[in-house]
Amino acid sequence: MTIEGSPTVDAARRVAPTLAAHRQDADRAARMAPAVRDAMGRAGMFALCAPRECGGAEVGLVELVETIEVLARADPGAAWHVGNSVVAGCCAASSGPADRAELFADLTRPFGFSAVPGGTARPVDGGWSITGRWPFVTGSLDAGWLGLTARVHEADGSPRLLDGRPVVRTFYVRAADVQVEPTWEAVAGMRSSGSNAVAADAVRSPGEAVLQLLRSPAVAPRPLYQIVPYQLFWATVVGTVLGIWAAAVDAAAATVSGKRSSIDGGLAAELVSVQHTLAEADTTRRAFRLAVLDGLGEIWEAASARGGTTATERAPAWAAMILAPDRARESVSRLYAAATTQVWLASHPLARAVADLHAITVAFERFRPIVADAGRQLAGLEPLHPLA
């Protein structure tokens, strides 16, 4: 499944060579290269899910994943910036005109984001006061605005509760108002995402620049904004994974082609085990790509037809999007093991792919119950996970 003639996918293909050319520079600097940020900003990559009223593209789900997949083949960290900017589009769709205009005054810069509830938010005149520390905030050095997830407190400091549980929301603050700690310089994977730690001390967030990741009412009642924001964000995660996976298969094939063993002089590409590993990796990638796009296509059809989706309609996409990164990590790790000693170099594409996929999937244990929920629904049972 591929969307033909998509303006955003075509735009991604045009900027991809710039991403690839600056990949090593971005990895060394542990942040997006300035030339990449400028090229993607001009191409509208940071406003893919922004409402049309803000000048955004408001793309469809399948188109979104395919666009990010193209970018991730060239530089996963740059694609990650685009995925995190998607969350700001959801926020704008549930905000009033004034806050929406303030948030998207500059469409050429990425939006940072952290889903970790690392702080607190108190209501103040005209908005919210945000205080806390977030260990990972993508785009902390390049974004104009950062989406920081926090627990809501009342003005007197007491926690706001809903059904006995803390109320958690994502609040947008200006990046210039927070302190960035250069913690990302030491990491191995997804280096160009620039996901440093960030601290805020009573920083202002505009009154309506607030998002509920599990569900936010959309001021712009169109299909894209009837989709659960967290599922929309997760679609960008799996788009990045698919791009890394495709690039890894290409890199593995190129590495073994024409390479002779220093032990017996035989071609690595002639080993049946290597051939099998390559074929299995490519076939598995293609199968999961189709499963993801098919599931998201069904969600898009339901949202377009009825203005909403059911848990049963969302389940196939959720299962595919949780399983795909797991399988990609396993598949690329096997490609790494089957390749030649060239992959020992830290700059080799396969070495980077292994590190990037492990960085993305490090916290996946918390999301495995979503797959079980898909099985529950196939068996006629009600889902249990709040994201279902």
List the helices and strands and how they pair.
Layout: H1 7-21, H2 23-29, H3 34-42, H4 61-74, H5 76-93, H6 97-103, E1 111-124, E2 127-137, E3 145-152, E4 161-162, E5 165-166, E6 168-174, E7 179-181, E8 196-206, E9 210-211, H7 229-256, H8 272-306, H9 311-338, H10 349-361, H11 368-378
Parallel strand pairs: 1-3
Antiparallel strand pairs: 1-2, 2-8, 3-6, 4-5, 6-9, 7-8
Helix pairs in contact: 1-3, 1-4, 4-5, 4-7, 5-6, 5-7, 7-8, 7-9, 7-10, 8-9, 9-10, 9-11
How do you describe this structure in short?
With 388 residues, the chain is of the alpha+beta class. It is built from eleven helices and nine strands.
Account of the protein in words:
- With 388 residues, this protein is an alpha+beta fold.
- The protein is built from eleven helices and nine strands.
- The strands form two sheets. Strands 7-8-2-1-3-6-9 form a seven-stranded mixed sheet. It has a two-stranded antiparallel ribbon with strand order 4-5.
- A hairpin with a 2-residue loop joins strand 1 and strand 2.
- The two termini are 25 Å apart.
